[in-house]
C-alpha cells in the first residue's frame, strides 16, 4: 500500500481503505469533505498535518514507523487522539454491540436461556476493557503529559526519577484485544440453537472490527507514544541504570 502524504487525495485514500473513515472521524472530519488533499483538509480544520499523516499511516501499515517525524508533533495531540478513541469504544462501539447481544438474548420465544452466556462473557470483557482504559487515562496519560511539560520547561520542574515511568507502562500494557477471542470462540463453537443467525453474524463481525481497531490503537500506544516518551525521558536523564 502507498504511504499517505499531505498531497494524497483524501477521498482516494478512503476508497482504498474505508476503515480510514473512523480514523478521520476522530479528527472531526466526516464524509462530504469534498475533493481535497490531506494537507488541504488539515489546513481547513486546523489540524497538524504531520500528526495526521503519522496517524493515517500507522493505521494502515503495521511496520510504519515515523522515525524522523517523531519529534515534529506534540504528545498532547497524541494523547487527545487516543482519548477520543477510548471514548469511541466506551460510548459508541461497546453500547452498540451490547444492544445487538440484548436483542439476540431476548429475540427467541420461548426464551433460549443458553444465549445468556454471550451476555456474561461480553460483560466480563467490558470490565477488562474499562480497567485497561481507566488505567491509561488516570495514570499513563497524566504521566506522559507531565513529561512533555517537564521537557518543554526544564527550568520549572522538579528533579528526580519518578516512581512510574514509561517502562512500567510498557511492561503492564496488555493485549486487551486478544481477550475477545474467548467470546468469539464461544459464539462460533458452542452457541445453543435456536437463535437469529443474521444477528449472530453481525455480532461476530462487530467483534472482529473491534479487535482490529483495538489492535491499531495499541500499536499507536506502543510504537509511537512509548518511543516518543522514552526520547524525552532520556533527554531529561530519567532512566535508571
Ligand atoms: Fe488506549
Ligand atoms: Fe492500551
TrEMBL record:
Pfam families: Hemerythrin. GO terms for cellular component: cytoplasm. It is found in: Cytoplasm. The keyword Isomerase does not apply. Coiled coil: none annotated. It comes from the Bacteria. GO terms for molecular function: metal ion binding. Residues 97-229 form the Hemerythrin-like domain. Keywords: Cytoplasm, Iron, Metal-binding. The keyword Transcription does not apply. This is Iron-sulfur cluster repair protein YtfE, RIC family. The lineage of its organism: Bacteria, Pseudomonadati, Bacteroidota, Bacteroidia, Bacteroidales.
Amino acid at each position: 500500500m502507498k504511504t499517505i502524504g499531505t498531497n494524497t487525495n483524501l477521498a482516494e485514500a478512503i476508497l482504498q481503505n474505508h476503515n480510514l473513515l473512523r480514523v478521520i472521524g476522530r479528527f472531526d472530519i466526516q464524509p462530504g469533505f469534498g475533493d481535497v488533499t490531506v494537507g488541504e483538509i488539515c489546513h481547513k480544520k486546523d489540524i497538524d498535518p504531520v500528526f495526521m499523516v503519522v496517524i493515517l499511516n500507522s493505521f494502515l501499515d503495521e511496520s510504519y514507523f515515523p522515525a524522523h517525524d517523531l519529534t515534529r508533533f506534540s504528545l498532547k495531540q497524541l494523547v487527545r487522539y487516543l482519548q477520543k478513541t477510548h471514548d469511541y469504544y466506551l460510548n459508541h462501539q461497546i453500547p452498540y454491540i451490547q444492544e445487538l447481544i440484548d436483542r439476540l438474548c431476548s429475540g427467541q420465544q420461548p426464551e433460549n436461556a443458553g444465549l445468556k452466556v454471550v451476555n456474561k462473557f461480553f460483560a466480563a470483557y467490558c470490565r477488562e476493557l474499562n480497567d485497561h482504559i481507566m488505567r491509561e487515562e488516570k495514570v499513563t496519560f497524566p504521566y506522559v503529559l507531565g513529561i512533555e511539560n517537564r521537557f518543554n520547561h526544564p527550568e520549572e520542574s522538579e528533579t528526580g526519577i519518578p516512581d512510574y515511568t514509561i517502562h512500567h507502562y510498557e511492561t503492564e500494557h496488555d493485549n486487551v484485544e486478544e481477550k475477545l477471542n474467548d467470546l468469539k470462540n464461544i459464539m462460533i463453537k458452542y452457541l445453543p440453537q435456536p437463535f437469529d443467525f443474521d444477528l449472530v453474524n453481525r455480532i461476530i463481525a462487530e467483534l472482529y472490527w473491534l479487535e482490529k481497531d483495538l489492535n491499531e490503537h495499541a500499536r499507536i500506544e506502543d510504537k509511537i507514544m512509548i518511543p516518543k516518551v522514552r526520547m524525552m525521558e532520556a533527554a531529561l536523564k530519567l532512566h535508571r541504570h
